[in-house]
Amino acid sequence: MHEQKVHIVSLGCPKNQVDSEVMAAILADGGYAVTPSPEEASVILINTCAFILPAKEESIEEILRMAAWKQGGRGPCTHLIVTGCLPQRYGKGMEKALPEVDLFLGIAEIPHVGRHLDELLQAGPRRQRSVIGKPTFLMSAGHRRLISAPMHSAYLKIADGCSNRCSYCAIPTIRGKARSRTVDHVVGEAELLAAQGVRELIITAQDTTAYGLDRKGKPTLSRLLRAMAKVSGISWIRVLYTYPAHLTEELLQTMAEEEKICHYLDIPIQHGDDAILRAMHRRGDSALIRNVIKKTREIVPDIALRTSLIVGFPGETPRRFENLLSFAREIRFDNLGVFTYSREEGTEACALPSRISEKEKERRRGVLMEEQALISRAINRTLIGTRQEVLVEGKGDLSGYTHVGRCRRQAPEIDGVTHLRGGAPEMGALAACRITAADDYDLFAEII
C-alpha cells in the first residue's frame, strides 16, 4: 500500500466525469488512497476540459489554483498531474506554458495512470513530463469506476469520440473518431452499477445515436437500450446527446414501449436557421428537425425535450437570429441551454469572418433564455395536479419543503429540480408525488 493520498478534480462534461471515476478506481486498486479533500493529498490530479474557450480558461484557472496550493506548502501536496482534453489538444506545448505541472497525460493514458504515478514518484529530475499519443482509450468490461456521489444516479458512457465533423467543434480532433463499446460490456457495467445501488442510468456519448455504427453488425442504440432495460435494479434510463438526423423511429418506439426508459430526450439542434446549419455542417435542415420532433411527439406524446443552441456563429445576421428565436418559440422545448459561439483554433469555422461582438452574443443569449423561461413556466404549469415519480436526492433548502429530487422530466445539473414536502422518504427512493406548483424551471410537489 502507498502512503500517498490522491485528490482528483474533474472538470467539464459527464463523459469526463466517467473518465475521472475510472482513474480513481485504477489508483485505488494500485494502493493509493483517493481523497475528496485537496488539503490531505500529496498528489493532485486535474482531469481537464478543452471543448471551448470558457472550458479551457476554467481548466487553466484550476491548474494554477492547485499549483499555488502545492507551491505554497499549505498542505502535503508534492506533485500535480494534468490529464484529459487540455493536454490531448495542446500536447507538449503545455510544458512551457504551465511549468508548475509535474506530468501531462493524454486520453490514451487513462488506463495507465497508476503506472505513471508510480514512476513519477520514483523518478529523478530528467523524467518525461508529457505522455500524449492518439486518443484511443475506450472503456471495457475490465475497467471499474469509483462512482462519485450520489450513488443512486450514474452516467454510463456508451462510446467515445465523434465522426460528425461539425465546423465549430474540436471534439473529433481531441477525442478522435466515434468508437462504440460492445453491447455486452455496456450491459455488464449497468449490472455492476445496479449492484452498487444505482437506480438511474444516464446514457452519454458525444453522439449517442451514432452508437454501433463503427462496430461489426452495427448494433443500434435501440437494441442496447432494450438490453439495458432488462437489468434488475435499474428503474430509470435517460438518454442524452442524440443527433437529430440520426434519431430513428425504431429508437422512439423503444422509448414508448420500455417502461424504464424516461420519456425524455436531449436533442442538441444548435440552430434553427438553414444557412447557419449549413455553415455549421450539421446534417439536416430546419425542416428535418421539425419532422423529427413532430414524429417524436406523435410516438411518445408526453416526451420532455431538451436542446442546446449556439448564438453568435459567424454569419448569424440579426434576421438569422430572429429565425432561431422564432424556431424556439414554435418548437417549445421543455428545457433549453444556450452557448455563445467560441472561435476554436483547428476548426473550419475558425477561418470564417465574424463581426459579432461578445457583448452582442451575450445579448442574444439573454433574449433566448428569457423567451425560454416563459415557455418552460407555461409547460411546467400544465403539470400542476399531475402525478409524478420523483427520485429523492437530498434534503431540501426551501422553507416548507423537506426534500429535493427530480422527476423523469428532469436531468441532473442541466434541468430544474422538484421540491418535496410531506413524508420522510429515503435518499435514492422513488416517491409518488403530486405536483402542486411550478416556476420557470422547478416543480413543487406533495408526496402521496
Word description of this protein:
It is a single chain. This protein is an alpha/beta fold and 448 residues long. The protein has 13 helices and 19 strands. Helix 5 links the parallel strand 5 and strand 6. Helix 7 packs parallel to helix 8, helix 8 packs parallel to helix 9 and helix 12 runs parallel beside helix 13. The relative contact order is 0.08.
Please list the strands of the largest sheet in the order they lie side by side.
2-1-3-4-5-6
- Total discrete domains: 3
| Rg over CA atoms | 22 Å
* Poorly predicted regions: none
**Whole-number mean pLDDT:** 91
Report the top-level CATH class of the largest domain. Answer: Alpha Beta
Which overall shape is indicated by the principal axes computed on the Cα atoms?
globular
The CATH superfamily title of the largest domain: tm_1862 like domain
CATH topology term of the largest domain: pyruvate-formate lyase- activating enzyme
Total beta-strand segments: 19
Residue share in β-strands: 15-25%
Structural class: alpha/beta
Describe the largest sheet: 6 strands, parallel
Write a concise keyword list for the protein shown above:
448 residues, alpha/beta, 3 domains, 19 strands, pyruvate-formate lyase- activating enzyme, OB fold (Dihydrolipoamide Acetyltransferase, E2P), globular
